[in-house]
Structure formats: structure tokens, C-alpha cells
Amino acid sequence: METPTMTIPSVAIPPSRYPIAADNYHAHYPQLNTSVSPGSFGGPRSFETGSPNSILSSPKTEDSPIYPSGDFMNGYPMFNWSYKQNQNLAMQPIPPLNAFYRPRRLEEIAPRDTISLIIALFFDFVYPLTPCVHKPSFLADLHARREERDPLFFALVMSTVASTLVQVPRSYLPMERPVVRKLAQTCYEASRHITVGSYDPPTSMHVVVRYFDCVYHFCEGHDATQHAAFGEAAHIAVTLRLHEESSYEGLDPIESEVRRRIFWLLFGADKSMSILLGRPICLRDEDCTVHFPKELDDEYITPSAYLPQPHGKTALVSGLNYTSRIFALLGEILVRIRVDKRSPPQGQFATARLEEVQSLHSRIVAALSHAPEPLRLKQAHASSPLPADYGGAGFRQATFAEVKDFFDNPNASRANALNPFLVMQANLYVTQQLVRFVIEQYRDELISSLQGSIDEYHLAGDREAVARDLLNILHSIPIQSIATNGPSLVHKVRFVASTLLDAVRKAEVAPASAARAHAFLWDFLSILSEIERNYLLDDDRDGTSSDGMMMG
């Protein structure tokens, strides 16, 4: 006997009018302009004139589809359906994920000259810290309008633009802040719409796009979305086996180096978030066999060969390599701290652990001793006591004026901000002091557990040394070079300064010089907070709410 079957009318599902961008679900994020225009992306826009056409505009449909007959629902009265027989209900069309995956023109988003200006700013100010595209081939592809043939390259350009707009000082952009913010949001959403349906097969370009998206959300204060973007980037990287050296066999030089660079950028960001936010480590050193990128500038990396770097010319990527070594040491100490927290070592095991930690301390102190000359710090003051000009109203006023000029004056000197090695010095040496501080903290905990107590005066002296060295670094690098690092550097200094200040308050015995060093460091942190505030594109935020942490 045959079982009766129910026939449900088939309904064609046309393209959707639902935007995919996650941020717009939240009421506290700016709402999209939902004006509908022909074509899924709308026509060319001019941000200078505030054109409402949006890349998120959805195709019009002539006929609204209807739901199938309600007969099949009548057997379920417990749901209390308010459903009238033969009633036609409007249905929002839902497109396939690949509906947006087609070639685009940059002019659909902004004038090509505007995009070109922003890309130039990326290579001047952002690229030295995040060299995850190959400059010659990227610019050649842009000149050849590759984005009009390759949707994924269009997405890469969009994510590059979005992350650049939130990282460069606003005086460098001939636009008002609301216009900059709207353009950054539109570029991010354009990239997201294109890439969300194109994960298979994964490519290194997907990883770079998601890394840039992560930076964009970090700077905009979208904390959960930032971490989601990082998770995508990290797991696509693992899917591509970027952490395994064997996966690089047979790749051309450009692809190989882009993969190495983006992996180590993710590796560093992972360790930053782990220490500053207390998050689990995602990319563990013991799982990684991949080598560091070759220390070659992009013009010496071609599709078919590696060309020799000119003698005496330091490659920009050397900054990333030294930062990655420092983050690898941070990963080593974090793993030990967390294992020991779960199962504290006792007796000879604690002694053995202390020896390991002291070895890590020696390695972090010497981590930059062999850095090439352009990356070496020219310290203003290498000895104690701290100079009086490190504090006081005069220093603060002069430095605040420099910061204001840097962010507000289009004609201000950019020489120090354009010196990539000075910018990288700030990142390198501040990160080194952060890792040194974490190692010393745990070393002192182990000594205290082994000996039952610790010399408070000696401990205060160690803390003073960290504060003094960090101050010397910050005073030895031009404020414009520090400012170019953006909010990520501020987070690192704030972490050390706040922990040191807490230790000073709790200490019963401490030299007066220690309190003075910490006071000077806190003064400098107020300057860094002003730098952080100037990167905000939203006037309603004060820079204190974000819990995110990115960048190497």
C-alpha cells in the first residue's frame, strides 16, 4: 500500500533585498541607506556629493512571490497560526550567496582618483607594518583594471581601502570625517558581500582580505565582529596550511612570500589579543614549521625568481621578522603561564620552570641586539635618573601641539611619519618591553613561590627599569612616527603602564624614583590617548570602550 504524499507547490526564490553585513543588525551601528537602484550594486557614486546609491542596493523584482497554500499548516493548531486561506503574503526575496560574486568597477564605489589616493596612502603609512600584498603586482593589476575581471581582487582593493581609511591621520584625506567613515563602511561591505560566498576554494587573498577586515573593525570598535574576522582569517590560513613549511613547495616566489607574511601578521595579532585580552592562543608556535619571509623588498621578488637585495639596503619586511620573533617569545611564556596556572609546579619542577623563564628573559632582552642599523633605536637617554624634561606641563603642551598639527594640518611635515623604519622602531621596541614585562612578572611569581617571599625593594627597582626603558623608547622616537602606529601601540603602552601603576600603589617599599618614572609614563600615556582619540571617525566615541586588540 502506497503512502500518500503531500504535494507542496514549488516557488521560485528571486534575489534578496536583505543586506548581509552583520554590523547593521545592531541599533548602535549606523543604518544603511536602502534606496534601491538598478543592478545589485547601484551606479557610480560620488562621496563628495553624498550620492545615495549603495553597493548594497538589491535588484528590483517585478512580481512579488507568494507563499504556498496553507492547507499543509492546518494540522498544527498548537502554533496558533493567524493564517487566512488563500491570503497572499509578500515574501522578501533571498539571493544565493554568489549573487554578488561578479566583476565590478571601482567607480561604482568612488572616483578612481580617490581610490588611487587612498592606495598611495596605504603604501606610505600602513604597508611598512602590514606588508601583506606584493606592491608591484598589486599596482600593476590595479592599473590593468583587474578588478573588472576578478571579483576577489575587487574585494581585496575594497578591504585595503577600508582598513587604510581608519588607519591614516585624517589630515591626509581631503574629506570630512563622516564621509571617510561612510566610504570605509561601504568598501568593507562591498568586499564582504563578494567574498562571503567564495570560500571554496580558499586562497591567500581570502586571508589578506579578512585580515584587513579585522583591522577595520578593530579601529571602528566593532569588537565581536573584529574577532570573528580574525577567526576567519586564521582558520582559512590553517586550511591552506600556511603554518606548514611543506605547503610552500611549488609556489611561485610572490605567492610564497605573501603567504608567509600574512601568516606571521596573524601570528603576532593572535599573541597580542592573547596577552591583552586574556584569550586562548589560536596559532601555537609548536604547531608551526613555516619559515620567516625572505628579507627582500618587493621589487626583488618576481613571479619566477628571487633577485638579490642590494648590499647595505635593509628590506622593509625585516621589521615584521623581528616583531614575529618577539611574539614567538611571548607565545612561549604565555603557554608556560597558563599550563602552570592549571597545575602549579612544585619543588624541582618549579626550579626547572624558573630556569626556562630566565632563559626566555635573556632572549627577549637580546632580541633586537642584531637588528639592522635602520631598526636600531637611537636612545635620547639610556641611563638613570630620568631627565626632568620627560615630565611637566611644558613637555605635555609642546607634544600635544605636535600631535594636533600632525592630525589637523595638511601642510605639516610628514618626514618622520614617512620614515618606515622609525615607525617600525616604535612598534618593535614597545612590543619588546611588553614581552619583557610579562616575563619578569612571571619570573618574580616563581621566585616568590620558591622562596616564600620576594625583596619588595628589588622588585620595585625592576618595575622602575621597565618604566624608564619604555619612557626612553617613547622619547627617542619622533611623536609622528609613534602616532603612525595608531591605536594598537597605545594598547600595549596602556597595558604596561596600568599594571606598573597598580604595582606602585600596592608596594609598601619603593624608591621615590620609581614613582617618578611611573608618573612620567602616565603623562606620556595621556599623549598616546590623544593620538588614539584622533583616529576615531565617530564623534560619539571616546576611545575607551573597545576591548579589541590587533596588529603586530
Automatic annotation (TrEMBL):
Keyword annotations of the record: Nucleus
Region of interest: Disordered: 40-67
Top-rank lineage group of the source organism: Eukaryota
Amino acid composition bias (Polar residues), ranges on this chain: 48-59
GO biological process terms held by the UniProt record: DNA-templated transcription
UniProt feature coiled coil, ranges: none
Name of a matching Pfam family: Fungal_trans
Molecular function (Gene Ontology), one example: DNA binding
Database matches in InterPro entries: Carb_Metab_Trans_Reg, XnlR_reg_dom
Name the UniProt record assigns to this protein: Fungal-specific transcription factor domain-containing protein
Organism of origin: Schizophyllum amplum
